[in-house]
Amino acid sequence: MKTAIIRYNAGNIQSVAFALERLQAEYVVTDNPEEIAGSDRVIFPGVGQAHTTMQHLREKKLDLLIRSLRQPVLGICLGMQLLCRHSEEGNTPCIGIFNEEVKKFQADAQHKVPHMGWNRVVYNLRNSHPENDDLNRVQFAHTDDFYFVHSYYIPINSHTSGFCEYIKPFSAMMQKDNFLAVQFHPEKSGKAGEKILKFFLTSF
Amino acid sequence: MLTKRIIPCLDVKNGRTVKGINFINLRDAGDPVEMAATYAEQGADELVFLDISASQEDRKTMAQWVREVAHVVNIPFTVGGGIKSANDVAPLLEAGADKVTINTAAVLNPGLIEELAKAFGSQCVVVAIDARKINNTWVVHTHGGSRPAGKKLYSWARQVAELGAGEILFTSMDHDGTQQGFAVDALLKLNTLLHIPVIASGGAGVPGHFLDAFVLGRADAALAASTFHFGKIKIPELKKFLSQHNIPVRL
Fold first, then answer.
1. Which of A191, B167, B171, B179 is the most exposed place for a label (fewest CB within 10 A)?
2. Where are the domains of chain B?
3. Which residue of B has its CA nearest to A189?
4. CATH fold for domain B5-244
């Protein structure tokens, strides 16, 4: 069982690698398409700016590769946002697994932007997301605090499997087919974060 | 709801923590890695490490212990001490630090804030401001609080935010070490003026001081050193106390 962490110009790759080491998971940090495609699981991390990051991914043809993956894929933070259709950040077309628009938080008197710190998420962990019309029957059985750092968010949609609220409710977690995506940083979210990583590595 | 953050601060000299002598259940109270892991286990929301080594030469080990901390600790942490340029920052972030903090270097070269924000993102640039009241005016100090910088707290804080800092770590030198409470008035003013998070520092002695910093000072986070290191306040009890007083905290 080998997990590939996609290497690109993102900030938190080392932290994700260390988190996998703490869980004693075998991993490789790579931008080699064959190595990524041949791994059992793929983590698409990300801290950075959407436009420059997409440009970098396109130059390396990693955008097409990510779209073609059939093994379990975990997108983290910017990685989650880039799995959407489009981001307001730099008016950037993204990879398009989730047909969603990434929007910018509008600060107000009570809320500073970025949304930074620990916030509560109500979520479920399932192997595959149920059909949209089943959403009402999904048990959102887990509640934990996770560490967030972001200025852009994905609204609630039919793929949302974890809810958080800051200024407005937004998607903290989404699931579609073999793709799991989280807006928070599981690698920096203490025991709760480890629970998510373990779920991805063993059960997703 | 976004929770209020509790942040222990560790001073590191030549790769060893200082002040950690009374900390319970540590095999090696001088090991930054073990202290960090213990605080993370106890429910600290973030950690700040300040390298107070005397010379750049002694700070060469910084990236090394930062890497060791990142390897073990599963919560965000900030490192500072002697950072003067983007070249100093890159290895620390690559080693696994989440944020860096600058103080004197920002006062001497405010452009550094902008440079770091552009290169690494605002979210990882924490500007520390040390200030004390002189003739009823909050005056910024540099070089570990030893020199007046010729800047006033509020205008400097505003400039820091405009230049792209992600957070301000405000230490009241008048309150630091007194264990008589945070500088609540100045915190409230800063939090009213600024649209970036403010971390309260200096003066923590009892759990009620944290409550005051959050309720009266509207701080986003509160930092303390000795009061945690000496076990005077234990983080799980502090958080329970805050929660009982309706402060959102991560339990």
1. A191
2. 5-244
3. B75
4. TIM Barrel (3.20.20)
Q: Which domains does chain A have, with CATH numbers?
A: 3-202 (3.40.50.880)
- Across the interface, of B72, B76, B121, the residue whose CB is closest to A147 is B76
Residue B11 falls in the annotated catalytic set: yes
CB-based contact, A193 to chain B, within 8 Å: yes
Q: Is the ipTM of this complex over 0.95?
A: no
Give residue A1's pLDDT.
82
Instruction: Concatenate the DSSP letters of all residues of chain B into one string.
Output: -PPPEEEEEEEEETTEEES-TT-TT-S-TT-HHHHHHHHHHHT-S-EEEEE--SSTGGGGGHHHHHHHHHHH--S-EEEESS--SHHHHHHHHHTT-SEEEESHHHHH-THHHHHHHHHH-GGGEEEEEEEEEETTEEEEEETTTTEEEEEEHHHHHHHHHHTT-SEEEEEETTTTTT-S---HHHHHHHHHH-SS-EEEES---SHHHHHHHHHTS--SEEEESHHHHTTSS-HHHHHHHHHHTT-----
Instruction: State yes or no: pLDDT of B238 exceeds 50.
Output: yes
Taking contacts as CB-CB distances below 8 angstroms, the residues of chain A near B45 are: 117-118
- Residue of chain B with shortest Cα separation from A192: B74
Active site residues per annotation of A: 77, 185, 187
- Per-residue model confidence (pLDDT) at position B14: 80
User: pLDDT digit string (tens) for B172-207?
Assistant: 999 998 899 999 999 999 999 999 999 999 999 999
> B37 contacts in A (CB within 8 Å)?
none
Does B94 contact A at CB distance below 8 Å? yes
